[in-house]
Amino acid sequence: MPITYTVGTLLILTALGYLLGRRKAVTVAGGNIASLHSVPSYYGSFSALWVLLPTISLVLLWLALKGPVINWAVVDGMAPEAVLGWANASIPPGELEAVRARVAEGAGALTDIQRQLLLINITNLAAGQAQYVNPAVVDILRPAAAHMQDLRSLTDWALFGICVSLAAAALFITRGKIGPAFRARNNVERIVTFLLIICSLIAILTTVGIVLSLVFESLRFFTKVPVTEFLFGLQWSPQTAIRADQVGSSGAFGAVPLFAGTLLIATIAMCVAAPVGLLSAIYLSEYASGAVRNVIKPVLEILAGIPTVVFGFFAILTVAPFIRDMGAAIGLDVSSQSALAAGVVMGIMIVPFVSSLSDDVINAVPQSLRDGSYGLGATRSETVKQVILPAALPGIVGAMLLAVSRAIGETMIVVMAAGLQANLTANPLASVTTVTVQIKSILVGDQVFDSAKTLSVFALGLVLFAVTLVLNVVALRIVQRYREKYD
Amino acid sequence: MDTQTMTKPAAENGTKSAKMSARGVKVFYGEKRALHGIDVDIYENEVLALIGPSGCGKSTFLRTLNRMNDTIDICRVEGLITLDGADIYDPKLDVVQLRARVGMVFQKPNPFPKSIYENIIYGPKLHGLATKKDEFDAIVEQSLKRAGLWNEVKDRLMEPGTGLSGGQQQRLCIARAVAVSPEVILMDEPCSALDPIATAHIEELIDELRENFTIVIVTHNMQQAARVSQRTAFFHLGDLVEVGNTEEIFTNPRDERTQGYITGRYG
Q: Among candidates B260, B251, B191, which has minimal Cα distance to B221?
């Protein structure tokens, strides 16, 4: 009985619950619907929700627990001889002694990794994929595999039975409750509120979980590298030696060059995005006629929809060579992965972001202020300069801060267009690297999860998170306070 | 133009000439015609009240007088409107100068989010009416005095204009309009957002301003029209039904529709 059938049955029962609840209500009303407390469909929904919610929760819970529970039951249920037989064929002789010594404990004699290996063999066998299992142990493991299959089908049936009886009980109880005085609408509203709360909790809990994992892994990193070295050190070279005699991989975790590189690129990006975005927002909201705006706004939104990876190869294939050639023409030595190229392209990427946010705040400036200014004989540009921009300034500052936080967190463009060398420089023509680029390049490929190098990404991520969080909070507060003023 | 027999300040009115006049003014919003040909004269140093039920076109007409309708994309104006005999819709005419001569006060007080002082000097600065600090100071003082606000705000000129009460804000907006020394001031229901005391204040003020300015006021409040205006124009469904001496309009209207409106049968 696969779980899909169980869920399908539950859905049918839910529909049945709705119909029965509704019918009961109509019957009870005896032709006078108005005598019911709620409309009949609420009685139906009430039954349906009570059929569906407890059983579906049970199914979800079981889906989460099923794997570990069955694995544990199967492996620990194996006869000691079977475990030993499997160990004889699968474990190197050196480790075999330890298993033999404790053979009476069955699977308890195995280390975690050996246990995993055993489990993979059994699971493959149970799935009918004996070709992936060492032929020598196939016969030894067959009983365990059969046990696993039995357990699976047994628990699935049990789940089906429990769910159906729960649903039937819910049907019966809610049917008993339904009467003219029963407040079905209030009950349904309460259940719906509860569901909505659960959904928002999922988002909040996920965030909290991510933050906590960042914090704890960072703490692990800071036991290997002092906080002060990380925050104030001027050298970043995360290659640590794997063997003691390795050369050239001392490992230095001073993140200042990364922060500086991030700041440099974000600054260049804002130098492009702020004026272009703001001025185009002013044009759109104050100067453009309706027809023009109807063309330009969607086009700007398309720009916002271009995947950042596309901007990335635009940066590396078009802008970077262009800037290098320009530099060469006037005798400057420009790195082929200059901060300038990455920053400029990132700025262009943020333009629609800045312009649509600025457009919002500019439009929020009441028309009456424009009228007042025009009525005094001001021209459009005078009105923009002296009335609209001052009035919209807090909102525009907020929009800019949001854009900065976007620029700092952006990864793809800098991964492709900025370099990997952690140079500490303010020269936009040199190659710099950013926090996000380092996180990405450290985590690409196979990693051991206890080296300082790997753990450093959590510290970097934590810093990134803290900075963007502060920026967002400040920016949103500014924007909000400004909105309140005019609404 | 029929009713030129003025009874109120009769002696003066006889000698007055038309400051602004409209002939056959039609206004279209896209396909829809909002005004069907308006003919009216506005005399110097008088208050002309525009009354009529909602949607009758009185505000639309008011806004054609300083071309505020230009800011609405789909709005089109036909006919002739003159200021001192010159066509204000002449393509060669600078709309900025027109608005400096024909100022406007709006329905909702709309002080700029700046200090009281900066609100007043906004217009004079734009038009280069003054350059030195003491000249600006003089303009601020004179305008606020004319708007009857000077005594209330003279000690806090640098505080934001948005911090004033509704009635004070509206007087600030009047002072702001006066500061440019316009010849005509248009008022679009200037008291509709104010309480009765603030309204009485503004009405008094309008009567005083008449000495120096020509005023056109749109109002929903017929008592107000009767109190502040010398002449009244009644609009209905985009037509100018009747215009004449205020007293006559209110006591002895010639058109049935006017009578219906002022006796409260509709509107």
A: B191
CB A415 within 8 A of CB A436: yes
- The single-letter code of the amino acid at A104 is A
C-alpha triplet B210, B214, B219: angle, nearest 5°: 85
The angle at the Cα of A484, spanning A483 to A486, to the nearest 5 degrees, equals: 75
Nearest to B123 among A289, A370, A376 (CB): A376
Q: For residue B68, is it within any domain?
A: yes
Q: Provide the domain count of chain B.
A: 1
Distance, in Å, from the CA atom of B75 to the CA atom of A325, rounded to the nearest integer, reads: 52
- Please give the ipTM for the structure prediction: 0.85
Mutation to test the B interface, candidates A286, A362, A376, most B Cβ within 10 Å: A376
Give domain status of residue B4, yes or no. Answer: no
Neighbouring C-beta atoms of residue B261, cutoff 10 Å: 23
- For residue A341, pLDDT over 50 is answered with yes
B149 lies in a domain? yes
Domain hosting B238: range is 17-262
Q: Please list the alpha-helical segments (H only) found in chain B.
A: 10-13, 58-64, 95-101, 116-126, 133-146, 150-153, 166-179, 196-209, 222-228, 246-251, 256-262
Quote the pLDDT of residue B16. 60
Q: Residues A106-122: what's their mean pLDDT?
A: 82
Task: Judge whether B210 lies within some domain.
Answer: yes
Distances from the Cα of A478 to the Cαs of A361, A390, A473, in angstroms? Answer: 11, 14, 9
Asked if B177's CB is within 8 angstroms of A375's CB, the reply is: yes
Give the class (CATH, top level) of A252-486.
mainly alpha
How many angstroms separate the CA atoms of A368 and A371, rounded?
5
CA–CA distances in Å: residue A383 to residues A286, B4, B113: 9, 41, 13
For the question of whether the overall pTM of this predicted structure is more than 0.90, the answer is no
Smallest CA–CA distance, residue A376 to chain B, in Å, is 6
For position A243, what pLDDT does the model report?
A: 60
CB contact under 8 Å between B106 and A387, yes or no, is: no
- Gap between the Cα atoms of B44 and B101, Å rounded: 13
Q: Are A171 and A51 in contact (CB under 8 A)?
A: yes
Q: Which two tokens stand for residue A445?
A: 């490929």
In this structure, what CATH number is given to the domain that contains residue B253?
3.40.50.300
